[in-house]
Design goal:
With about 110 residues, this protein is mainly α. The chain has three helices and no strands. The N and C termini lie far apart (about 85 Å).
């Protein structure tokens, strides 16, 4: 891999811009678009690495969970989670049903 080179003047400008940017004296949008593009490319690369690390950690946590609990214990936990999930779904469903019947367009008949 060969490192690219720039002139000393350009190098000094970049160093000064970076220093001012880090101290909050210069906004990213005040930099030339070509320089700002390097920032965004670095951000995207870092986000990609972070997402991959998160996937790896989640996989390791899943493996640790499987090793920590016996199959019967896992089944109980799964069932408890499913029960909780469906209880929330049921509440949301019936809350939406109540909202639909209480709108101002409903025809009400006096008894």
């Amino acid at each position: 891999m060969t490192r690219q080179s720039i002139s000393e003047i350009a190098d000094r400008h970049l160093e000064v811009w970076l220093d001012r940017l880090m101290r909050g004296e210069l906004l990213l949008g005040e930099l030339p678009l070509s320089v700002e593009a390097f920032y965004h490319a670095g951000w995207a690369a870092a986000a990609s690495v972070a997402q991959q690390q998160a996937r790896e950690y989640e996989h390791k946590l899943d493996l640790a969970y499987l090793q920590a609990y016996a199959p019967k214990d896992r089944a109980e936990v799964y069932q408890r989670r499913l029960d909780h999930h469906f209880k929330l779904q049921e509440a949301a469903f019936f809350a939406a049903d109540v909202e639909d019947t209480n709108d101002s367009n409903s025809i009400r008949v006096a008894a």
